């Protein structure tokens, strides 16, 4: 193709070809303006009807909005143009004409509901403030991977087709795998643990997870992207340090490298979390929640935290915080309990004031205790033999955690609905596009 | 946990705690050596039986091989030790005792077949030369992502649960999705195309793909990791430039940052590809293959290239090369044909002398031609409405391609079997671990 110049790079005096979408055409009579939009920004193309070739003017001014065109011509300084420059077209080529009627207005002048937006994600993502969310998402992934590498962690990819789910048969999507029953994996948990027992010692993965939960809420997805971390020779306290470091690295990278995107989203005061995140024990959390008086019914030890309870505590704390020392019975089998108090686990959650972001903990690395944990949870350890048997061959003490990328983006950017943080969400009702 | 020092960082004069796996114990009578192995390397721990606490000696020398221990003590220079230093233990703690019998020998002294290795990946990956493959794999992913960002490409994640496969109903794993029929996606193809029509323009994804192929060969997997690239406003020639650039970036990063790993794998002459990759048309390729005389039967125009044909041509060319201008009928519907010759497509393959690495091409961006292509391929365009309809609203000309990560690693490192390039392979027979 012809050498193409981004509109943002077009300087007065240049002779260039720009290509993009017809954002708007304004016909003022003797003169008309076409605003061409590309990834980098917009440029004004000026048509002087009496002085230009008739066909050229006709092509430029009759093309439908959102058509794809390329324009070759001179760039001139023009103070009255929005970007201070405008183009005088020597030629215009229509690369792909758009229909006159669009299911969604990419200029954003006409509001669309989320469902229409998701049905037409291509058009929806022509809005700069929607695009900004996904540029930020990509920057977050870059930043967390860099952070992991800086602490000696190796990227892994674990299988998404599995014979058994992490926590048994619930909430799994079944697959037919060459006539055998299999499932889409709900978490890399067991596989990343197997890898800390290998020579890799410290690993991370960014990949999809699948949960057949019936929830249909603004903060649940049936397919999500997970950031998983696991390391040998650390305990739950050190795992929380890494978790906190990862989150801060993500926020700092966005603050530093996504200023334009944050502007588009209306953030003139994007705050990066600083200071150590408070670490409340579960018991302290319960007490503080009860003390807020926000709940109709007082919580008692052993209760899981409802959405309302999380909100009350989040408002009270006012920033990110950890909840540690959860009752063993409400944490999964692979979380280790305290030696001197087997009713309390070394599991933790990282909380944003709006919701839970991370689950993690010190893991059970002793074969006997692990198999017992399976049984207590009503799971058959035999089915997980591929996993448990490796604990007999030198499994180090280890700890780790997992972030949902979408919740991280949702809370970072104050999005109302988690579906805004994923290109093509999958939920109870939505399987397409 | 106690502050832990990697064995490679232990310097004479230090008092440190190291932790890792018991690699070997050599008892020479009055003196004994325990070799402790961790991610960074190995260290010799010396037990002087007459001078040390009896319990300490007993603990250190009776622990099974591959148990996890931590040792605290003094580091001393010792020329006769393999690394030039040794530790005099003040205390030894057994963190997790391994069984006496292991299903696989992590020291590599006893060979194991691939199936046993894959059944016991945790132990297998304690071998430094196996670990090296996955450190290199992680470095390749880092390098290609950096390369993509350097050319203004945004990372995306597209759904793995889909209503329709990229190329229809063949070779798809079916899922039950809340009572509806769905599939595991065989390629991000359609979704990444939808994204080049959005404001993102140029995107990449690294993620799993799923193919229900019945093949059970040393170079096929049913779940693989794909590197996908797609960009608006480029043609197939420019897509090949990016493809070549990505491959070279990966090789150069490995040559620069994985010298230790390459040493372990026995490469003292790891070659990074240089010079422009030859671009043969399909017709030229056929002629050259026939001219080698390696094939029992001469190829004729329209034939797909068999494994034997690829090998014959690969030997003849002797390095990476592209095959361009494929007959339209053996390329999928979304590849564009030449305007002046609709029987020839703008599809291309990147070939390594051993096998195909990449499929790519200029895409069909015109609504009418796209729908026609579906019909010609025997697919119902209605079923793909979520995709085709976006081509009516300003889809730019675009091109792209996809690499299989495992084939890239396999050819880069000269691995015999593609399963060596994936932690937990999925094939016709293997669903666990």
TrEMBL record, chains A, B:
It catalyses: tRNA(Asx) + L-aspartate + ATP = L-aspartyl-tRNA(Asx) + AMP + diphosphate. ATP binds at residues 211-213, 219-221, 356, 404-407. Keywords: Aminoacyl-tRNA synthetase, ATP-binding, Cytoplasm, Ligase, Magnesium, Metal-binding, Nucleotide-binding, Protein biosynthesis. Residues 134-433 form the Aminoacyl-transfer RNA synthetases class-II family profile domain. Gene3D superfamilies: Bira Bifunctional Protein, Domain 2, Nucleic acid-binding proteins. Mg(2+) 3 binds at residue 356. It is found in: Cytoplasm. Its EC number is 6.1.1.23. Mg(2+) 2 binds at residues 356, 359. It is an enzyme of class 6 (ligase). GO terms for biological process: aspartyl-tRNA aminoacylation. The record marks 82 as: Important for tRNA non-discrimination. Residues 189-192 are annotated as: Aspartate. GO terms for molecular function: aspartate-tRNA ligase activity; aspartate-tRNA(Asn) ligase activity; ATP binding; magnesium ion binding; RNA binding. Binds 3 Mg(2+) cations per subunit. The strongest magnesium site (Mg1) is bound to the beta- and gamma-phosphates of ATP and four water molecules complete its coordination sphere. L-aspartate binds at residues 167, 211, 359, 363. Its cofactor is Mg(2+). One of its GO terms (cellular component) is aminoacyl-tRNA synthetase multienzyme complex. PROSITE patterns: AA_TRNA_LIGASE_II (PS50862). Pfam families: tRNA-synt_2 (PF00152), tRNA_anti-codon (PF01336). Aspartyl-tRNA synthetase with relaxed tRNA specificity since it is able to aspartylate not only its cognate tRNA(Asp) but also tRNA(Asn). Reaction proceeds in two steps: L-aspartate is first activated by ATP to form Asp-AMP and then transferred to the acceptor end of tRNA(Asp/Asn). Belongs to the class-II aminoacyl-tRNA synthetase family. Type 2 subfamily. Homodimer. This is Aspartate--tRNA(Asp/Asn) ligase. It comes from Halarchaeum nitratireducens.
């Amino acid at each position: 193709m012809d050498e193409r110049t981004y509109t943002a790079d077009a300087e007065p005096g240049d002779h260039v070809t720009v290509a993009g979408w017809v954002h708007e055409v304004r016909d003022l009579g003797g003169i008309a303006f076409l605003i061409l939009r590309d990834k980098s920004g917009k440029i004004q193309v000026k048509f002087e009807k009496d002085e230009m070739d008739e066909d050229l003017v006709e092509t430029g001014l009759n093309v439908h909005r959102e058509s794809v065109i390329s324009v070759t011509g001179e760039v001139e300084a023009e103070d009255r143009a929005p970007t201070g420059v405008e183009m005088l077209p020597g030629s215009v080529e229509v690369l792909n004409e758009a229909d006159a009627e669009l299911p969604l207005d990419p200029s954003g002048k006409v509001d669309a509901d989320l469902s229409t937006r998701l049905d037409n994600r291509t058009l929806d993502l022509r809005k700069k403030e929607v695009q900004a969310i996904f540029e930020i998402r990509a920057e977050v992934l870059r930043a967390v991977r860099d952070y992991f590498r800086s602490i000696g962690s190796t990227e892994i990819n674990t299988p998404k087709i599995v014979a058994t789910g992490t926590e048994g048969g619930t909430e799994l999507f079944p697959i037919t795998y060459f006539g055998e029953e299999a499932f889409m994996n709900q978490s890399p948990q067991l596989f990343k643990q197997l890898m800390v027992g290998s020579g890799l010692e410290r690993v991370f993965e960014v990949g999809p997870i699948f949960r057949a939960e019936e929830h249909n809420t603004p903060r649940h997805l049936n397919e999500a992207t997970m950031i998983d971390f696991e390391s040998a020779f650390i305990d739950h306290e050190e795992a929380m340090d890494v978790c906190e470091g990862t989150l801060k690295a993500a926020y700092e990278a966005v603050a530093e490298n996504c200023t334009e995107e944050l502007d588009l989203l209306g953030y003139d005061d994007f705050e990066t979390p600083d200071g150590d995140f408070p670490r409340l024990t579960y018991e302290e959390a319960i007490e503080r929640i009860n003390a807020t008086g926000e709940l109709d019914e007082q919580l008692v030890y052993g209760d899981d935290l409802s959405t309302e309870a999380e909100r009350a505590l989040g408002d009270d704390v006012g920033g990110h915080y950890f909840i540690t020392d959860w009752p063993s019975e409400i944490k999964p089998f692979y979380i280790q309990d305290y030696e001197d108090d087997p009713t309390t686990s070394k599991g933790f959650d990282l909380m944003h004031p709006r919701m839970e972001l991370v689950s993690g903990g010190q893991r059970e690395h002793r074969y006997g205790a692990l198999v017992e944990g399976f049984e207590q949870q009503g799971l058959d350890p035999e089915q997980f033999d591929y996993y448990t048997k490796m604990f007999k061959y030198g499994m180090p003490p280890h700890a780790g955690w997992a972030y949902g990328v979408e919740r991280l983006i949702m809370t970072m950017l104050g999005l109302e609905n988690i579906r805004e943080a994923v290109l093509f969400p999958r939920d109870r009702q939505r399987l397409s596009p």
